[in-house]
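Chapter review: from sequence to fold.
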Amino acid sequence: MSSQPATTLREVSHPALHASPDESGFLDDVARALWSEFRDAREDADLTVRLLVGASLRRRCVGHETACRALMALRRAIIDSSELDAASEPVPLVVGDRRQGLINLVGYLEGLLARASQGGDNRLCRRQILEPALREITL
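The token string follows.
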């Protein structure tokens, strides 16, 4: 038997438990998911986007409330960088279950990008809209 004391679960240090949230990395992940090639090729692309966003939340150590704030900032930047009329765009409400609200907000952003990129090649237009929008955001 070893003379060393047993290590409890509370003593184990996991890097993700102590990492600071990476909001800009999270937004980059969301943007890549929204403009990626699989969107045109798959029927279940919406589910895949939501799964990628969920994985990014964990990898980037971003909580639901912080993610909602970041996605609302992305919404504003998309509207500003596109030709959409801000007054006619609905403001998504995130109330109650934050997880479901976040999923709904990602779905809203997909629709917003579809409206902003009407006409032409959606994937290319989505990227052309998202890249300047991401540069506008200060977190």
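Two observations follow directly from the output. Residues 5-18 have pLDDT under 50 and may be disordered. The two ends are 52 Å apart (CA to CA).
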